Amino acid sequence: MISERLKILANYVNKNDVVGDIGTDHGFIPIYLIENKKNNRMIASDLNEGPLDNAKKELSLKGLLDEVDLRIGSGLDPYKPGEIDTVIIAGMGGNLIRTILIEGKKHMEYLNKLILQPMHGVEELRRWILNNGFRITDEDLLFENNIFYEIIVAEKGEKQEYDETNLEFGFNMLNKNPEVSKSFLDMKIQKIEKIVEDIESHGSSMSQSRKEQFKDRIKHYYEVRKCL
Ligand SMILES: C[S@@+](CC[C@H](N)C(=O)[O-])C[C@H]1O[C@@H](n2cnc3c(N)ncnc32)[C@H](O)[C@@H]1O
After folding, report:
1. What is d(CA 152, CA 82) in angstroms, rounded to the nearest whole number?
2. For ligand 1, atom 3, which residue shows the shortest CA distance?
3. 51 C-beta closer than 6 A to ligand 1
4. Residue pLDDT, tens place only, 29-84
């Protein structure tokens, strides 16, 4: 069954968009889009045969195999430039997503929308997006199966000014669901407190300036939390 995370991702696709789902695995996103009739032409690709077989199986079970163009290959390699206007890349590391976009340079002028869900490395991915002709137009933060997932939707547009806080938390992500955001910040605070505790309990020395950096980070998180 499709997860809340995948549903949220799929719901960012507009009617008539021509979509590439990179790293599709089970093919749940194309299935959801077809079943919800957004009139999308769908291409779904994966680097590996196993996941592509999963997608084939799921699509066959639903009688939808003819509706999705399944392709094998890395990143945007299996696509012709101009063939898709929207790309979904979810469930991979931010660095890999960034590499896929960088290596897919010849596709960039045709892509209007990026729907991304990095598992980590989110800050550097946001930096890349904002420095490469896209604006972050929507965001989500959700907690599912004990994991926080950050979703970034970016569209072609004029340069969006940003600061370090935007790189870490986006522009509006934390305001969407303050309760989830508070838990997200608590998790970040606990992570730093644990690092400090571990270093100290192992008897390793930590410079005063490093300690101050950690303290400032925690203070910053509390300040962000207070605004929610
Ligand atoms: C964890 S799964 C995520 C599946 C789905 N997108 C989701 O979010 O539930 C990652 C998928 O990406 C595929 N993958 C990894 N590197 C890739 C690449 N460079 N190009 C295309 N697919 C890739 C893997 O084979 C795997 O099926």
Report:
1. 22
2. 91
3. yes
4. 999 999 998 888 999 999 999 999 999 999 999 999 999 999 999 999 999 999 99
